[in-house]
Amino acid sequence: MSDDNPSAGMDGYIFTDNVFAFEGAASVQVEEDFCKPWRVDFNRLDFYPFLKDDVAMCCSGVRLCFTTDSQQVALDLAACPEGTQLDLFANDELMEEATPDPGSQCVDFKPLPEGRKRINIWLPHGTEFQLRRLLVESGALIRRTQVTRKRWITYGSSITHARSGRTPSKIWPALVAHKLNLHLTTFGFGGNCQSEPMMGRLIRDLPADYITLKLGINSLGGALSARTFGPNVIGLVNIIREKHPTTPLALVSPIYSPPRETEKSGSGLSLQDMREIHKEIVDTCRRYGDCNIWYADGMKIFGEAELKYMPDELHPDADGQFALADNFVREVFGQFPDC
């Protein structure tokens, strides 16, 4: 099938990888009457037992991407949960922030500019997304958009999942990607960032030009201990390095959280302890020849000065997404030599 395939019209199915892609997804579940992006390997869900029921279905950072000359675009949905939000960009310019009614089956976007354009529809960061059909004007051109941006993968907790972002494109990883013109894949999993080996394998096997691992806060509850936290992070890094031996990689320590800074938690660690462990791991990796790993201090990314953006003393709010993004660009990407 050629790249320039005409659509089958408003009543036709546009249901092939040659026409659109779920960028930022790790896999796609394809059923008879819908497709659904996942942020883990759908075909091996049982290897992600803590992620398969909720957070991995949420489309944080996932985009529905294609190129078309149609001025009308609509989505036929198999499901539209409460909280569904969609941000449509044409040639990187925000065209519409859509909030369909729960249970809606069709999202009909406002008319788009004339001519061929790259469409990125940022999918709901707090819910799943089930697409039956992508609809365009009869006779319009539609094709898959070629990825030319450098690829950035980030892994973290609910802070990286960023449910508090106002819309899907206003979560801090998306804001960073916009600022630096990067192709984003975000593995932010609320309550479930435990440096699991399978996440290391998933990141290892994806193409990446930059990798950032924002680890620690979810391990305070005791899933990892003072004995196991550091070794698990070391193992995670080394699994990723099997296929990304020189990719710029940053270990990002926990951001500020007043109740957790010095008090030992169920893990036997405080956030201050975890920051020291992060630094020690980076120093160790460098001693063993890894010159492309960096440490980023979470306190410089979101510290006491940003507490006003943290009503629960843990999660940055909607305004805090912008502050965190600005600081992340400076403190993390500012260390990478080619960025």
Summary tags:
alpha+beta, 339 residues, 5-stranded parallel β-sheet, 7 helices
Describe this structure in words.
Helix content is 21%, strand content 24%. By secondary structure, the chain is α+β, with helices and mostly antiparallel strands. The strands form 4 sheets. Strands 1, 2, 5, 7, 8, 10 and 12 form a 7-stranded antiparallel beta sheet that branches. It has a 5-stranded parallel beta sheet with strand order 14-13-15-16-17. A 3-stranded antiparallel beta sheet has the order 9-6-11, with no helix packed on it. The longest helix is centred in the C-terminal third of the chain and has 17 residues, at 271-287. The relative contact order is 0.12.
